[in-house]
Amino acid sequence: MSVVQANMHPLDNYLRTERLPHVWCSGCGIGTVLGAYLRAMKNIGMDPEKTIMVSGIGCTGRAAGYVKMDSFHTTHGRPIPFAVGIKAARPDLNVTVFSGDGDLFAIGGNHIIHAARRNADITVITINNFIYGMTGGQLAPTTPETGITTTSPYGNVESPFNLAGLVAVSGASYVARWTSLHVRRLEKSIEKALKKRGFSFVEVLSPCPTAYGRRNRMRDPVDMLKYFQEHAVVKHHINPLEGVIEPDKDFIVGEFLDAEEEPTFEDKLWEMTKKEFLYTSQAERTAWILEHRRHLETLSKIISGRGER
Amino acid sequence: MRLTLTGNQANAWGVKLSRVQVVAAYPITPQTTIVEELAEFAANGQLDTQYIKVESEHSAMAACIAAENTGVRTYTASSSHGIALMHEMLHWAVGARLPIVMGAVNRAIGPPWNIWADHTDTISQRDTGWMQFYVESNQEVLDTIIQAYKVAESRDVLLPAMAIEDAFILSHTVERVEIPDQELVDEFLPPYNPPDYLNVDDPKGFGSLVMPDWYMEFRYIIARAQEAARKRIREVTKEYAEIFGRDYHGLVEEYRTEDADVVMVGAGTMVSTARDVIDKLRSEGHKIGLLKIRVFRPFPYEEFQDIAKRVDVIGVMDRSFTFGYGGAMFSEVKGAIYNTDARPKIKNYLIGIGGRDVTPKMLEDTFRNALRVKDHGLDREMMWVDLKGGE
Predict the structure, then answer these.
(1) Which residue of A has its CA nearest to B115?
(2) Which of A148, A206, B173, B297 is most buried as measured by Cβ atoms within 10 A of its Cβ?
(3) Which whole number is the average pLDDT over A146-171?
(4) Could you tell me where the DSSP H helices lie in B245-300?
(5) Which residues of chain B lie closer than 8 angstroms to A134, CB-CB?
C-alpha cells in the first residue's frame, strides 16, 4: 500500500506548518523573501537541523517563529549579538539573522556595523520596507525624504540610510541588494551569502502596502512592485556610496561586494585560543562540548531518578 | 470641552495642555499611538514642540535629558522593553534632577513575548528615583500628566515622573474625557523655570565626577526630594481639585474603608472593577473596603500606617511579581507597617499578570479569601489568583 501525501508544499519540511497562516498582510513582501531564503537553503543542501534563525522585533521578526529550525525571537535590535554569541559557542552551526530595517539599523544599528567589522561568520537578511510596520507605520531610518508616516504626517525631513552601502564599507565579505520583485536573482544571491565564509548581508526592498504604500501614493501592492520594476537598475560591484535611494529616482540593485574570503571572527578567536587548549581543530572542540553535555544530561537523569542506572 | 478619547489620546492631550517643548520617542506597542497623536499636534501647529524621532528608547531618554538640561519641558512615552532599555538613562534623569514626565503604558516583559497589561515594566524601575503615578481612567491619565509636571518641577522636588496606564484596558479604549481650559492649565502650570540650565553666559559642566567623600550626600538630597514630593503631591492634587473639580486624593484613595475590617489594596485599572465588587460584598454585610495606590513612588507609608491601625486584614493585589519573595506592593505595605504597633494580617494576591483579565468574579473570590483570613487567620502569605494547575 502506498501513502500519498496530498497538498504538500515543496517547503513544508522547512516550515512549522502548524503555526500558519502567518501574520503578514496581503501584498506584503516578507513571505516572498522567506520563500527565497528557504529555497536557497534547499538548493545548496544546507541542513535545517544545523541552521539557526535569529530575528528581532517587527513584522520580519516574526519569521523565526515559522521556520522548522531552532530559532530565536530576540529583543528589539539585538538579533546580531545573539547570533554572534551562538556562532562563538557553536561555530559548527549555520546562523542566519532574518530581521527588518528598523530592528537592525535603528535600535540595533550599532551591532550590524560591528559584526561586519569583525567579519563574524553569519548571514544577515534584512527586509527594508521603509517603515515600522508592526507598530502601525512610524518613521524609520530608511523612510525616504518626504515620506509620509504616522510620526511624519506632513513629510520626512531626515535622510535615510543606504543599508547595503553602509554594511559594505563596514567590513563585510558579501553584500547584495534586491527587491521582492527580483525573486530568482535574490534566491541566487542568498545562496552565495549562505555559502560565503564571513559576514554576508542581503538587503531586500519589500512593499508594505498597509503602513507605507497607502500613505505614499502606492496604495495597491502592485504599485510598489511597479515602482521597483521601473526604477531598479541592476549593477554589480559599484562604489557602495552610489547605493542611495531617493524618492522617484532610479536606484541600484545587485551585488555590491563579493570579497575574497578572509579569516572570520570565529577563525581568529580559534587561532588565539588553540594555543592555550589542546584541541587540534574547531570540530574537535565542538565534539568535546557535545560529548561533555551528553554526560551531564545522563548524570542529571540519574540524579533525578529518571534515567537508567 | 468633552472629547471621546483613548487613554493614549488623553495622554497626548495632557502633554499638549502642558505645552511640552521637546518630545523624543520611539515606537513600541501599546504606547505608539501617544506619540503618533503628538506628531500630528506638532506637525499641524496645535502644539509648539520639536518632535525627534529617535532610533531607540535609550536615545529617547538621553535626548529628553539633554533637552531638559537646556531649560525646556520635555516628554517621552514608552512601554515594557522600551522602559527596560531606558533604564540607564532613567537613573541619569534622577541624578541630574530633571523633571521629565514619561507616559508609561504598562506591558509585560518577555520572554515569553506578551504585549498585555502587567506592571513589571514600571515596578522594576522602582529604585531609579522616578515618581510613579498609577491611573485608572482616561480622564485620570490626562489630569495626571499635568499634575506630574507641576509636582516634578517644584523647586524642592526636581525629580522625573511616570504617568502609568494599563495596556489596552486604557491605552486603546475610549472614554469621555473632560478637556480642561488651556488658560486654566497655564495658570496652574506656569512655564518650566529651572534653577539651573545650560547657559553659555554662565558656563558649567554637566555630569561631573564626585568622589566617595561627597557622592552619598548627593543621594541623600535626592532622598529628601522624594520626601518633599510626598507633601507636594498632596498639595498639588488638592489645588487641582479646587480649580478643575476632580479630586484624586493625593497618594492613595480610600473607598468604603469606614468601619472596614478588611481592606483590599491595588493599583491601575483593577481598582475600578474592585469598587463594584466591594459594593456587592458590602450589600451582603461584609465590612470590606478598598485602598487604591495612586502613587507608588514616593511610597505612601503614612497612609498605610494609618489604615493598619483600623483594620484586621490587608489584602495586597500585585499585577507583577518580584522574583525571590513576593509582589513589590505587598513587600512595601508590609514593610511600612512593621515598626508600628498595628498588626493586621497581610496577604499578597498575584493577579492579572501578563494581561490576564481581572474579572469581577476573580476579584470576588479574592476578596472572599481575604474575608476568610479575618475569620480563620493567615493560611499563607501569597496566592496566585486563577493559576492554571494550581500552586
Answers:
(1) A135
(2) A206
(3) 95
(4) 270-283
(5) 29
